Amino acid sequence: MAGNLHRMLAEIALEVELTQSAIGRTALDERVMQALAEVRRDLFVPPELRAHAFDNGPLPIGCGQTISQPYMVALMTDLLELEPEHTVLEIGTGSGYQTAVLARLCRQAYSVELEAELSTAAASRLAEQGYDNVETRSGDGYAGWPEHAPYDGIIVTAAAPFIPPALLEQLRPGGRLVIPVGPPLQHQELMLIHKDLSGKTHSRDLLGVAFVPLRSTSRHGGSEHTH
Predict the structure, then answer these.
(1) Can you give the residue ranges of every domain in the chain?
(2) Is the confidence at residue 87, as pLDDT, over 70?
(3) Whether the bond into 146 is cis, omega within 30 of 0
(4) How many CA atoms lie within 13 A of 198 on its CB side?
(5) What is the DSSP string of 113-155?
(6) Helix, strand, coil: what percent of the chain each, to 5?
(7) Residue 95 above 90 pLDDT?
(8) What b-and-e string marks burial along 152-179, b requiring 16 or more CB atoms within 10 Å of the CB?
(9) Which of 72, 74, 114, 225 could form a disulfide with 212 if both were Cys (CB 3.0 to 4.6 A apart)?
(10) What pTM value is reported for the model?
(11) Angle at 154 between CA 160 and CA 99, to 5 degrees
(12) How far is Cα 42 from Cα 40, in angstroms, rounded to an integer?
């Protein structure tokens, strides 16, 4: 496993180098790379796909959802610029892999997943691995999780047709939101939104991406996902 993990981390570093002009950084934070090194991705994929767990690509996890490409997990996590005292909200728990990475970098991670089956399985998986600073629930990601707001960082692991207003409202001044935006199966952009201390938001398109849609239980026109 060590060799495969080393290969995955090397491929992430290479992708960062290849996309540095778009993402605005030449390397990812060492804390983020350490979290990727410590979270066993093979424990978050179906048993029959574990031979491919450390490949730098997405994998199916059931319910029409995927576990994201390791490079994308690393990049989106890095863009949040999490500190140990921070609280983060994740939309799209999926298998719980991204959740586990976040939990290693901040005080508390909250995660919402539309698919109850995935949410239950992820909660069990995270608990078994000792993540006691994670809380998950099944629900509509477009609504966020207002009970625990505001958040220092919000990450959305599925493409929405627009930035959900509730997520902007739940972002703390000074906080960062990372979200892929665009229609299903068409051009999507990974966006970084920063809310300044006065409460004004500033957005930046980073690079083209391909995510499953962020689904909703109401008429948002979207669809939710995973990792």
Answers:
(1) 2-209
(2) yes
(3) no
(4) 3
(5) ES-HHHHHHHHHHHHHTT--SEEEEES-GGG--GGG--EEEEE
(6) 35, 25, 35
(7) yes
(8) bbbbbbbbbbebbebbbebbbeebbbbb
(9) 225
(10) 0.92
(11) 95
(12) 5
Architecture of domain 2-209: 3-Layer(aba) Sandwich (3.40)
- Residues acting as catalytic residues: 68
Q: Which residues fall within 8 angstroms of residue 42, CB to CB, at 6 or more apart?
A: 1, 50, 53, 54
* Reported confidence tier of residue 226, pLDDT bands at 50, 70, 90: very low
Which of 179, 207, 177 minimizes the C-alpha distance to 23?
207
Q: What is the DSSP letter of 16?
A: H
* Paired strand residues for 201: 195
**What pLDDT shows up at residue 88?**
98
Q: What is the mean pLDDT of the chain?
A: 92
Residue 90 structure tokens: 């994740």
Q: Coil, helix or strand for 93?
A: coil
State residue 67 phi and psi, 5-degree precision: -95, 130
Residue 116: both structure tokens together: 């109850």
108-113 and 201-209 as β-strands: parallel, antiparallel, unpaired?
unpaired
Asked if pLDDT for residue 220 goes beyond 80, the answer is: no
